[in-house]
Amino acid sequence: MIKKIYILILTLIINSCDLPDNTTQYVDRLVVFGKIDMLQISENDYNSSIEVTVSMSSAIDNNIEDTDELYINDATVKITGNFNLDDSDTTSSIITLAHNDNDKLGTYYPDNNSNYKIWPNSTYTLEVETTIENQFYQ
Q1: What torsion do the CA atoms of 104, 84, 124, 120 make, to the nearest 10 degrees?
Q2: Is the separation of the CB atoms in 18 and 12 below 8 Å?
Q3: Which regions of the chain does DSSP assign to beta strands (E)?
Q4: 72 partner at 20 to 30 Å CA-CA among 32, 104, 113, 135?
Q5: pTM tops 0.85
């Protein structure tokens, strides 16, 4: 008798834990991953890099053949902040990133000719814009 009650209670708990997963309307969103690295080698020698990856989100039940379709290679990517080589110059400037690495879909880097410095304890603002099928994303 106790086993029957235990099985009945367990069955009720398992059935009541079924959460509806399609109760909200899914909306496509822009997904942005950014990385700013600064490595100080010595007092006056440093190495810095910027990398940003841009893609679209996708519903779980979306019928896409390849997830590579979600990466965006034609977005406008800008970073605003203090990139000046002189530490006494604290004015903000803008670096525009470009998609120039065909091996990494949706990945943007500064121009190879860019001369910039990443400063510790500084604030940098990332701005990404793109249009997909006449829909503007920011």
Answers
A1: 100
A2: no
A3: 30-40, 46-56, 76-81, 93-98, 107-110, 125-132, 135-137
A4: 113
A5: no
